[in-house]
Amino acid sequence: MKNYKELRIWQQGMTIVKEVYLMAQNIPDQEKYGLRSQITRAAVSIPSNIAEGSSRDSDKDYKGFLEIALGSAFELETQLLILEDITIIDKGKSASLLELVVGEQKMIHSFINKLRAIS
Fold it and tell me: Which of 117, 93, 103, 115 is nearest to 11 (CA)?
């Protein structure tokens, strides 16, 4: 079993979760079960799948969980862009979060490629 807490991708994923929850507080109540719920679930899915994948014995299985985490990161990016487009959140306030999410996508993708190379 690998120590996922030492992975930068997990640590940044946890930062993303905190930032998303802070942003979600500013989303109107009528979106409680819509976009607010979706962005928090997508954010939580990122470090959760990185952690779950680290418990797997094979790199192939681990890669599968990393791919799910990557998909959640792209889902979250899309949802944040939607919130900007429909002017629920200000582009200036979401820019740093979007930057974190894109950075996370790149790191997860790189890690997947490293696992592919050793498999």
Answer: 103
